């Protein structure tokens, strides 16, 4: 794990040194980009791809719906904003990468595949030198990359954008 963490930070630093720009956006742009895609397609419930996923909202108590058998809930949080999608018919062993590519409303940009898959962007928020996306599966920080993290539904994948903290890795 420590080797992968070091490799990740080296890759991010090299991208910065090589002059690659990262787009800095305000906290509202993630939900705005998701809302825009939803409004372009109609109601949030109509953003279905083969009826395998749908946008979901928090209940009045602020709690996301619990995934049921063969479902995975993907929650994306960026400071004050959040969005969530319920993915149906998830097979045991599917990877986080496969689901992230399937839910197109996330606007995820994933570089590489399998062992080299890296989530560079979700919505309009890109990974930068000091900020980026981390994720948990069922409440625990992932110990593998998205292309190697197999799921055992029902599961919850929680993406959080923020400052890279060594203790969170």
What does this structure look like?
With 169 residues, the protein is of the alpha+beta class. The chain has three helices and nine strands, in the order H-H-E-E-E-H-E-E-E-E-E-E. It has a single domain, classed as Beta Complex (Ferric Hydroxamate Uptake Protein, Chain A, domain 1). The N terminus is likely disordered. The strands form two sheets. The chain has a six-stranded mixed β-sheet, with helices on one face. A three-stranded antiparallel β-sheet has the order 4-5-6, covered by helices on one side.
Chart the SSEs and their pairings.
Elements: H1 2-17, H2 29-41, E1 53-56, E2 72-78, E3 81-87, H3 96-102, E4 109-111, E5 118-122, E6 125-126, E7 131-137, E8 140-141, E9 155-163
Parallel strand pairs: 2-9
Antiparallel strand pairs: 1-3, 2-3, 4-5, 5-6, 7-8, 7-9
């Amino acid at each position: 794990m420590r080797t992968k963490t070091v490799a990740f930070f080296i890759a991010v630093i090299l991208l910065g040194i090589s002059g690659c720009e990262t787009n800095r956006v305000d906290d509202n742009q993630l939900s705005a980009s998701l809302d825009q895609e939803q409004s372009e397609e109609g109601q949030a419930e109509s953003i279905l791809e083969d009826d395998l996923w749908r946008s979901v909202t928090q209940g009045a108590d602020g709690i996301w719906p619990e995934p049921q058998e063969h479902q995975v809930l993907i929650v994306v949080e960026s400071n004050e904003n959040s969005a969530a999608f319920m993915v149906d018919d998830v097979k045991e062993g599917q990877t986080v990468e496969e689901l992230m590519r399937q839910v197109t409303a996330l606007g995820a940009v994933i570089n590489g595949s399998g062992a080299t898959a890296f989530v560079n962007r979700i919505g309009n928020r890109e990974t930068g030198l000091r900020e980026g996306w981390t994720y948990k599966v069922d409440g625990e920080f992932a110990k593998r990359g998205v292309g190697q993290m197999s799921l055992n539904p029902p599961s919850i994948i929680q993406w959080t954008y923020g400052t890279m903290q060594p203790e969170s890795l």
